[in-house]
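Please check this.
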Amino acid sequence: MLLTILLLVLCIFFTQIFIGLKLRARFQDTDRRFEKIDFSFLKNSTEIKKLKETSSEIQNTLCLSPINFEYPVFFGGWSIDSYLGKFLTQHLLEQRPQVIVELGSGSSSLLIAKCTQKLGYTPEHIVIDHEKRYLELTRLLAKQNGVDSGIEFNECPLGKIDHHDGPWYQGVQNVVGDRKIDLLIIDGPPESTHQLARYPALPVLHEHLSQNCVVILDDANRNDEKAIIKKWMEQFREFELTLIPEGHGLAILNRQSNQA
């Protein structure tokens, strides 16, 4: 009798262990399935986001086509993307900045020059680059598109400046002189030149900015640019920040004249 009871207990015990192992295996399999579903959903969400951005890029580029460049001007990749192109065309139409400074030459220089030509006004358009070959290429494309006379091209080599460990544009303040900048576009120096390579732009040119200046930092989705924005906003509290995450990312700083 005792032996029968013992065998029954052992049978129940091992049955429970077997059931427990089966349930554990089933739950593990379910967890793996959920992980696959989550990953698939995340992957699809990322692909949907990329698809929306691509669609917007195409739409923006098509909207820029009436500008009618005589020679092709490219957007995306190393050049500015169409989100910045869209913002510039709208800003030029609405605000008509009289002094425009670009740190880094290229497609944006041509877009600005062509837009202002179509709008029928002639700002002081100052383009600065440390690479002579890129500056000359921009000058050549501007000439092909009939807008070179409206751009002031300046080669400013990179070198040591005060209060910054890395190199930055030499002689920029002399180039600007006593002019007050209404629109400052920062698309250089390249990230590869130094950590926080574009940080000096605002400290160096701050005294040259007009009361209602707008500052644009391209590539704002990069970690270095995020750190730069944080430092700027702590140091220069008269600016209001707007972030556009699409494309390369844009940081738009609007100076509030009553706080300057």
Summary: The first helix runs from residue 2 to 64. The chain has two domains: 1-67, 74-255. The mean pLDDT is 82. The helical segments are 2-64, 82-95, 107-119, 132-144, 172-176, 201-205, 223-235.
